[in-house]
Amino acid sequence: MVRRRIWSALLEDAWLQRSVTWLSGVRRSGKTVLSRSLPRVEYFDCELPRVRNLMEDPEKFLKKLRRKRIILDEIHKLADPSELLKIAADYFPDIHVLATGSSTLGASRKFRDTLTGRKTSLWLTPMTTADAKEFRRTSLEHRMLHGGLPPFFQAAKPEDRTFLEWMDAYWARDIEELFRLQRRVSFQRFMGLLFRRSGGIFEATTYAAPCEVSRVTLGSYLNVLEETHVAHVIRPFNSRRAIEIVAAPKVYAFDTGFVCYFNGWDTISGERRGFLYEHLVLNELHAGLQTRQVSYWRDKHGNEVDFVLARRGAPPVAIECKWKAGEFNPSGLLAFARAYPGARLLLVAPDIARIESRDYGGHAIALTPLALLAGSIGHKGL
Fold first, then answer.
1. Taking the complete model, does pTM exceed 0.90, yes or no?
2. Residues 6+ apart with CB under 8 A from 213
3. Quick one: pLDDT band at residue 108, thresholds 50, 70, 90?
4. DSSP code of 173?
5. DSSP per-residue codes, 302-317
6. What is the pLDDT of residues 263-287, one digit of tens each?
7. DSSP 8-state class, residue 301
């Protein structure tokens, strides 16, 4: 079993902050294996009826625990999961609870209390560059084609049936049960179209007719995909200047393996490399910074920056992704620097081995390896 030591350390650190930790991530991202790998834990699978029966009286259940570190896997299966977590946080602070689920806490009607101030949250994303080293396979092409869900990543080759099985489980165990959505065919057709167009500008009108639903329904579908970490809405960074694009969001699929599956790709070559590498950079930012507050930038002259991070009290960070550093055109980053003097400018590419600064038109751009990206921005976790 791969230990995924960095994520384990983050969970241990989360428990030092608060007694209740919420671990979210898409189905098959490895939440169960990761949580069970922690030392001295007692594991409870809330999908089992006998386990749910044990927790009908939360106070009685917590008093009888043999260990002070417990895992509550798939906690949304409980009738009132918020009640148990709230009682644990308020009345049993010596018990460390790790609860897992596919969506953000409070995304569905199952959670009546989001436990504000009572929990620490950690988002287990698809595999990062650090994870790939743990799994002893660092080929970016392999990671792109197979995706970052550990069972998919470790398979000899991508199989259509595994993606189809994941889709079926996602609908039945996350969407239908937690959000009570109907019209499965329309929802899955929307998801497929969205993934084929991943990274592009989202225009709801282009999806309404093929999915046979209204724009309002499409909006609710997109909200559910975002709450369950399956799609990422990237909005334009702007300060309301007349020259900036302010209202054209992009939507990215959560994982490159699914992008390849929905596009029918069985090889990674040519322009696909740069396109999918952009997805890996976004995943690295999500994992390392544990935030979804990632934007992009575009002006009306056609200048664009792949990703922008706005930081309170500090200049923004602009990030450009390239498959080969030698093919980098700095015009987008330089236009951003002129609009936002003092901004940090970064170029991320697979053939960059170490962080170094280069001058482009009087502006310093930091050439940064993907593995060091989050750390260079200021996070020490991944």
1. yes
2. 183, 186, 190, 221
3. low
4. I
5. S-EEEEEEEETTEEEE
6. 999 999 999 999 999 999 999 999 9
7. T
Pairing outcome for strands 250-253 and 200-201: antiparallel
pLDDT at 250: 98
Planar angle of CA 198, 27, 184, nearest 5 degrees: 65
What is the 8-class DSSP label of residue 214? Answer: -
Q: Which burial class, exposed, middle or buried, applies to 217 when counting CB atoms under 10 A from its CB (0-12, 13-18, 19+)?
A: buried
Helix, strand or coil, per DSSP, at residue 291: coil
Residue 382 has pLDDT above 50, yes or no: no
The CA-based angle 258-259-260, given to 5 degrees, is: 90
Q: In this predicted structure, what is the pLDDT of residue 107? A: 63
63 in Cβ contact with 70 (< 8 Å): no
Which of 300, 200, 316 shows the shortest CA–CA distance to 308? Answer: 316
The span from the CA of 335 to the CA of 350, in Å, is 24
Beta strand residue intervals within the chain, DSSP E: 20-24, 42-45, 69-73, 96-101, 119-123, 200-201, 231-236, 250-253, 295-298, 304-311, 314-321, 344-348, 356-360, 363-368
- How far is Cα 158 from Cα 162, in angstroms, rounded to an integer? 8
Phi, psi of 123 (to 5 degrees): -110, 110
Q: What is the pLDDT of residue 380?
A: 43
Classify residue 95 as left (phi > 0), alpha (psi -120 to 50) or beta: beta
H or E element, residue 146: helix 140-146
The pLDDT value given to residue 379? 53
Amino acid identity, position 32: T
With beta carbons less than 8 A apart as the criterion, state whether 315 and 342 touch.
yes
Helix 271-289 and helix 256-263, axial crossing angle in degrees, nearest 10: 150
Q: Is residue 127 over pLDDT 80?
A: yes
The model's pLDDT over 79-89, given as tens digits with 9 standing for 90+, comes to 889 999 999 99
Angle at 343 between CA 358 and CA 367, to 5 degrees: 30
